[in-house]
Each structure stands twice: as structure tokens, then as C-alpha cells.
Amino acid sequence: DAGVIQSPRHEVTEMGQEVTLRCKPISGHNSLFWYRQTMMRGLELLIYFNNNVPIDDSGMPEDRFSAKMPNASFSTLKIQPSEPRDSAVYFCASSPMGVVDEQFFGPGTRLTVL
Amino acid sequence: GENVEQHPSTLSVQEGDSAVIKCTYSDSASNYFPWYKQELGKRPQLIIDIRSNVGEKKDQRIAVTLNKTAKHFSLHITETQPEDSAVYFCAAKGGSYIPTFGRGTSLIVHP
Hints:
The structure holds two protein chains of two kinds. By secondary structure, chain A is an all-beta fold. Chain A has strands at residues 5-7, 10-13, 19-24, 31-38, 42-50, 53-56, 65-71, 74-79, 88-95, 104-105, 109-113. In chain A, a hairpin with a 2-residue loop joins β7 (65-71) and β8 (74-79). Chain A starts with a strand and ends with a strand. Chain B contains no helices and eleven strands. Chain B starts with a strand and ends with a strand. Chain B has strands at 4-7, 10-14, 19-25, 32-38, 45-51, 56-59, 62-67, 72-77, 86-92, 100-101, 105-110. Chain B is mainly β.
């Protein structure tokens, strides 16, 4: 298995533009997490899906952020409109919850909003 | 909800020395405590974990101890090497299925 796949790996955009980050979890994993990592705040959980259903989105900073998981093999995190303070590394992680507790992280997307 | 505190934020040691990173948690229902290592520019990866029915676990040069009564757990790295330099995150997970991460410790091992 290739592990968790994220795209793009790097994204540079201008303030006000829409940004879409993509994630493909490990096949068979039924839990998916989106995290944001910054020097100031560390690793923050944004949203958690279980069996494609959003269970906890209390970490989503504001309405500009939205996430979807249309099927078991794909999830998106969208920021519209983007702002410079959204600049961070965004990680997607998956886990075969209920069997193994380990989270498997993707390589991350480094987002820079100018 | 769960609250995880991690100390120190930065740890600098000489090669060959031991390093200890400590975490405390607030939710007595937490029962799974993983440690992740994140090298510069890379993703976090699990290096060791411990469950609440175990007091200590070792894997070569790394070990984790858990004190449920005091609600704290620690990562111990012996005979540190330059390649141990990274950011280490502790986490605690209970019935919510959502792990709560500490803020991370930047470990620097000087050759």
C-alpha cells in the first residue's frame, strides 16, 4: 500500500482565492482526520470522519473551511476565501479505528497564502 | 475534553546522553498513549505506544512509562544519536476515538 496520499504537496495562492486540498486514505481504514500544523499552535485537529460521516468538526476554525468525504477513498478540505493566516502544513491521517489505534499520516500539503 | 501538556518544548543533549520527555493528561478515561516522531519536513510517525493496562514498554533505545494515578507518561531515549533529532509528540486517547496531541518537543542531539 502506498500509504495516505495527499495532493498537492505544495500550494501557493493569493489571498481571496479558493484552495482545495485532497486526501486518499489507506484502503480499509474507516477513520480520517484533517490536521493543521503551525509553529504557533502545533498540531490542531480540524475534523474527524468515521465511515465517511463527519463526527467532530469543532476544530474547523470558521465558515471559510469546509471538508467532505464523498466515499471511503477520498476526502477534500476546502478554504474559501483563503487568508494569509491560513498558511500552514495540512496533514491528512487515517486509521483502522476499532482494530488498531495508530494514525497513519500523509506527507502533508504546505499551503502559503500571499 | 482531554487536555495534554508536554514538557519541555525544547531539549538539547549531547550524543550518547539520555533524553526524557514528559506529558500529563486530564481525562482519567484515556487508555491509549502514543508517541510520534516528526523529522524536519516529514510527516509524524508512530514510534511507540502504551495502553493503560501496562506501566512500561521498551523498544530498543526507546521506552515509555505510564503512571495512571498521577495521569502522566514519559518517553525515554537512551544513548541518543544525531538521527534522533526531531520533534516528538505525545497524545492521549479515550472513548472519544479522537487523540489529543501535546504541543511537541524539539529534541536536538549534538554530535
